[in-house]
Design brief:
Length: 227
């Protein structure tokens, strides 16, 4: 089926990136999962109707990235009658939307938009899931405290620069590990941000954390400086 564009690892180019909702089994069938602006709706119908079997096609939305990475999206047209049992199919003003079950929570509340300068893009209020790193702890009281600081203080600060961090866990020896996303992914100032900003904010509230480490592969960012 036709692809609407190559998967984009970051905000602002074709598909804009960017707290998870209820579990898949609890999804309200009347909920469209995503919303579509009028501009995007017109463009998507135009693209769909240009296909030979357009009336049988729906827009399939899928996330290709791994936990801890910025969202990378794949948007394509597919036969909605052949959707997998685990897929959710919704209809928005005559346009079928197909979302794989594994991605429903990550798309909940997202908006598909279109502009003449950026093309189709996705505005997603959700954050990637935390990576599962062997040997790190992230289910204890300290982890909960760090998560609270990240949500209430760190990410609001980074949001001014279009970035965010995701807590991956701590090693029980004073080091907390994070990944960086949005405007912090590939940014040449990310190490300074992590060391001076995130570390100082976390250590001030959790004295047992004396260091932070960045697990991000910055070579995949929009402006990579690690080669």
């Amino acid at each position: 089926m036709p692809q609407l564009g190559a998967p984009n690892p970051h905000d602002g180019i074709l598909f804009l990136v960017s707290p998870f909702a209820s579990t898949t089994s609890e999804i309200d069938k009347t909920d469209t999962i995503v919303s579509i602006t009028p501009e995007a709706h017109v463009k998507l119908l135009e693209l769909r109707d240009a296909e030979a079997e357009g009336a049988q096609l729906g827009l399939r939305l899928e996330i290709l990235s791994e936990p801890g990475e910025d969202f990378r999206y794949d948007l394509s047209f597919d036969f909605f009658t052949k959707a997998a049992f685990s897929d959710e199919v919704r209809t928005i003003d005559g346009l079928k939307i197909i979302v794989p079950g594994k991605d429903i929570d990550a798309f909940q509340g997202a908006t598909i938009d279109h502009s003449e300068t950026q093309g189709l893009l996705i505005r997603n209020p959700n954050k990637p899931k935390s990576p599962q790193v062997e040997g790190l702890v992230r289910d204890d009281a300290m982890s909960a405290e760090i998560e609270t600081i990240v949500t209430a203080e760190v990410n609001p600060m980074l949001a001014a620069h279009g970035g965010f961090v995701t807590f991956a866990g701590h090693d029980t020896e004073g080091t907390a590990y994070f990944t960086m996303g949005g405007g912090c992914h590939g940014c040449s100032m990310s190490r300074q941000t992590m060391l001076e900003g995130v570390q100082s904010m976390v250590s001030a509230k959790v004295p047992t954390i004396t260091k932070v480490r960045d697990l991000t592969d910055h070579s995949t960012g929009e402006n990579p400086f690690f080669k």
